[in-house]
Each structure stands twice: as C-alpha cells, then as structure tokens.
Amino acid sequence: MQEFRMFCYQCSQTAGGRGCTASGVCGKLPTVARLQDNLLFVIKGISAYLNHARELGRTDPEIGHFLADAFYSTLTNVNFDAQRFVSFSLEAGRMTLRVMRLLKDAHIAAYGEPTPVEVFTGTRKGRAVIVTGHSMKALEELLKQTEGSAINIYTHSEMLAAHGYPGLRRYSHLVGNLGGAWFDQRELFSRYPAAIVGTSNCLMPPREAYRDRMFTTGVTGLPGVTHIRDFDFGPVMERVARLPELEESSGSVRRVTGFGKSSVLALADRIGSLVQQGRIRRFFLVGGCDSPTRRNEYFRRFVQQLPDDTIVLTLGCGKYRINDLELGEIEGVPRLMDLGQCNDSIVAIEIAQALAQALGTGLEELPLSLILMWMEQKAVAIFWALLSLGFRNIRLGPILPAWVNEDILRVLSAEYGVRLISDPEKDLNEILGR
Ligand code: SF4
Ligand code: SF3
Questions:
Q1: Closest ligand 1 atom to the C-alpha of 76?
Q2: How far apart are CA 27 and CA 413, in angstroms?
C-alpha cells in the first residue's frame, strides 16, 4: 500500500547511509517509527497553540514538561515500545485539550468572548493591510499601531475569527474579510494592492507581484520578505503609504462568525427541547484544515444534502467550503454556526459536553457526527484530543494521514470507529440510517 514501510534517517546507523525504510538498523519497527512520526506531528500542533498563548502572556509548565518528554522519547535508542507510544499519543490528546483551553482563555481575557457577527466581504476605498494566519496578538498590535492612520485592515483565512471578538472589532478600521482558505493567497494578494502580514501558517512562497509588500512576523519566514520583530509594524505602515488605494466594492458572499460557547449555550434550553420534539435530528461538526484538492468538494456537497432538521458547527479554514451557504434557522437556532479557528475545537468540545449534559446523555449517545478535513500536523493533535475524550466514528478526509499503516488503521477503526469519507450521499444515508 505504501512505498516505504517507514522512513528514518536520524542517526549514523541509518541503512546504506541513506535511510531506514523497511525496518530500523537499530531495531526500531515500522509501526514504532510511524507512531513516533505521529507524536512529532502532535508536538508541532501543541507547540503552535502554546506559541500563540505565550504571545498573550500565558504558559503552562505541565505542557512544557510533556513536550520535553515527548521529544526525548523519539530520540535514537530511547523507546522501542509501540504500546508506550499509543499511551503517549493519548496523553498528547489531553495536552492538546489543555493547550487549546489555555489559548481560548487567553483570547477571552484579552478580547472578550466572541459573539456572532456578519463580516463585510467587500473593500472600502483606501490603503490597506491584509492579515493572514492565526495570531490575534499580531493583529491586535497592528490595529493599535494603525489606529487613526486611515489604513484599513482586512483579515484573510483563519483570521476571520478575529471579527467575533469584541475587543478586536471595536477597531473601526478592521473593516472586513477577503478571500477564502489559505490556498487562494497567491491569487488574492496579487489582486489587491495591499501590504500583507503573515502571522502563522498557512503561508505560501510569494509571487513576485507582491513579495515586496509582504511581511512576516512571529515564527513565520519567507525568502526575500521583510520580517517584523517585536510586533513593530512601522515598516508595514511605511510600505502601505507608497501603495495605491483599494477601490470600493461590495462583497459577493455573506459570512457570519463568532459563535462563542456562551452564545451557543444561551440556546441550550431551546436546542434541548427542539431535540426532544424531534425538530432537531442531528448535529454535525464539519470543518478542519482545508487543502486545494477537488476531493474536498465532498464537504460542501455533504452539507448541501443535509436535511432541514440538522445543525452544522464549523471551524478551521475548512469552514470556507460551507460558510457562504444560507442554511437558515430552526426556531431561532442558526443551522450553521462558525466557532472560529482550528484551535477553537475546544469550544466545539465544550458545547458537545454541555449539550450531552443538557440532554442527559453521554458523548457517545449525543446525536453528533464529526466530518473532518485533514491537511497538516496540527489537525492530528486535535484528532487525538477528540479520541482521548471518547468521540467515536469520526469521518476523515480527503485521505488518511500517510503515517497511518495497516496496523494503526486497524486500531483506529476497530477501537475508535475512524473511517475515511466516501460519497456524501452514501455517508449521510449511513449516518442517518436511511
Ligand atoms: Fe535507522 Fe534507527 Fe537510526 Fe532511525 S534511529 S536511522 S531507524 S537506525
Ligand atoms: Fe487552515 Fe493552515 Fe489548519 Fe487553522 S490555515 S486550519 S490548515
């Protein structure tokens, strides 16, 4: 099924001086190598969210200790026990929950809890900066430094969630959101004569058309692009002053974001009685990390086929597959609710836990299906967090992570009911028992 049973070239014993691909010269078996790879991916996810929490002055020694132990366990000749890595992975899920909670608390303390808001998707006449990535702190610093300067700030991709925070949208020059998920950036940034600030993933190597008006900050970097240190956005403002204005244009889509835990749980009683009356049949969490493949059209087609008595929660940049759909309401309960960035998975989890409690069921009996997109490593961290909490029967796409070999797949499907997406209609019929 796979070209390599494993791949490791981290020590001098490596096979043929090139890489162990069948089994480790040291004795490391392919499944252990793959579980180590998976653990490294999860570590990257936890580190990303910890990084953003630290930008806001938060940290957690227990997460730091976990990261050190987890990294150490992947060193040559330290741990050959697959079962230990399965435990580590589940512990990683718990740490992912912890770091997402840390970051969510930091966001709420700094900017207030998100509330639903319709976001302008056109352009206002004037000079502009487009901000992409996940760092609310970077956006806040830019908003502060550009306040009163007649520069308009637009969000892109995962920064859409910023509009939900009262402490960020109070800046009147945070005017709107442009484009969709991360992979439209080369076309989008070429089209608008704005400065661009990349604050985290997902960035793409820039086109020449905008390289000299692009900036990176935090952990990001691009060749030939000016890097902003310590959130000093002076060079961005200088560059914007030499750029033409954007023209006035109206948005072609309607996007609503900012469903925080409180705003959803304020509807909990109504949702509970609608479920009991059979007016709400099922909840779907559809979202995650999008990628530029036609196979991800599945997610839009899936949501388009949902019956009117279902509710969709979404998050991550995968939301752009569906967040322009007009799904309406069920007696005042919106049928499509955008909870925010991928790290706001903690909000989805807490809402699910609260709904289960309100309905007097466990998580497993809750009428909730998870239909998730997988693109990069952070999503693996969230995936393990969901499994560690007892979420089952997750449908994942467009492909299985390549580190999953047959042994790992057997465990994921037998113990957790994880499966690959297939056809929207077939999957939906299966979920709804039609
Ligand atoms: Fe090969 Fe083991 Fe060295 Fe990795 S650590 S390169 S599997 S011998
Ligand atoms: Fe998207 Fe990169 Fe993950 Fe944060 S922007 S969801 S892939």
A1: 5
A2: 27
Mutate which of 6, 9, 20 for ligand 1? The one with the most ligand atoms within 8 Å of its CB, which is 20
Find, among 122, 382, 360, the residue nearest to 246 by Cα: 122
Encode pLDDT of 184-222 as tens digits. 999 999 999 999 999 999 999 999 999 999 999 999 999
Ligand 1 pocket (Cβ < 6 Å) reads 8-11, 13-14, 20, 24-26, 28, 76
> Residue 288 CA: which ligand 2 atom is closest?
6
Tell me the CA–centroid distance for residue 190 and ligand 2, in Å. Answer: 21
Is residue 180 within 8 Å of 155, Cβ to Cβ? no
C-alpha 38 to ligand 1 mean position (Å): 16
CA–CA dist 157, 200 (Å, integer): 11
The model's pTM is 0.96
Q: What is the pLDDT of residues 281-334, one digit of tens each?
A: 999 999 999 999 999 999 999 999 999 999 999 999 999 999 999 999 999 999
The C-alpha atoms of residue 230 and residue 244 are separated, in whole angstroms, by: 27
In angstroms, the CA 255 to CA 271 distance is: 23
